[in-house]
């Protein structure tokens, strides 16, 4: 008992002096026991000491998130401009809709007398031809029913709506940055005013519509063109585009090299645009459209004589809209690929508008290659044209 009292006295003095002696064995065991018996929730409530690995994980999380965001953004920026490729199949929207959907199939939408020459009783659908326009026909020369004509014009119009919608997004750089073809930049214009002028040109869609009406209704096309049988004949669409461009190449060349008076009356009004924009595509004279577009169209119809009505629609929409695209003031993502294949691009056609004596083709550059009149836009990169167009 005396020894215990002495130990307590020594410890009290140490505390009062600010010193503490090492605990005895009994004290150590007692302390350890009390700590081991502490409730688990007290241990969990203690602040957690962060280790180096924890800090590394915490710091790397935002970096990984940023990395994923950056890579995803880059991928979107790379893919987004290529969405414009959808404009090409959308040019064929109406013939595809009326041929390949059950609810909108032409046979369910229109009376059979409108698209069969023999009326309701004729059962040979494989060789159906366009119906006779009964109330507008005479016994000597029957008029063709305007159903095919109306659908053809509608196909071009609907395809053009898709093109204009895409071009507006492209022009506003919603789908990515754009590059003007020429170094002097894009000519300023009011979009709606230019659009109105584009659609109302007498030498453009109005004259084309008149040509299509006369040749269709008065039965001036090969018989197969009035047939609703089958679907789009894609090889014939390609042949029509090639034949049309060859004939147009020849007529275009003639306009340039023939008598100056012919050039002044016909093609010169279109060449006032040395830095053209998309809405200048059909801004020319009536003689120019007749010589360089309508005559080649008539020739093409009588060279490629086995097209059906759907092929004729697909060709017409593809041609009219492609002719519009090559007048664009800015380039499109697909142009390097097109140029490598000899397909017409905006930069190719800008060469013609800028220098006059090169690139007389429109949808194809093949005939310029053969004739030695092709000039690659790369030849004027960094000079008149921006690099990379």
From TrEMBL:
Annotated ranges, domain Fatty acid hydroxylase: 237-373
Keyword Lyase: no
TM spans (from-to): 79-98, 147-167, 199-218
CC terms in the record's Gene Ontology section: membrane
Membrane as UniProt keyword: yes
Positions of region (Disordered): 1-66
InterPro entries: Fatty_acid_hydroxylase, Sterol_Desaturase_Related
Principal subcellular localization: membrane
Subcellular localization(s) per the UniProt record: Membrane
Regions of compositional bias (Polar residues) in chain numbering: 47-66
Keywords in alphabetical order: Membrane, Transmembrane, Transmembrane helix
Protein name from the UniProt record: Fatty acid hydroxylase domain-containing protein
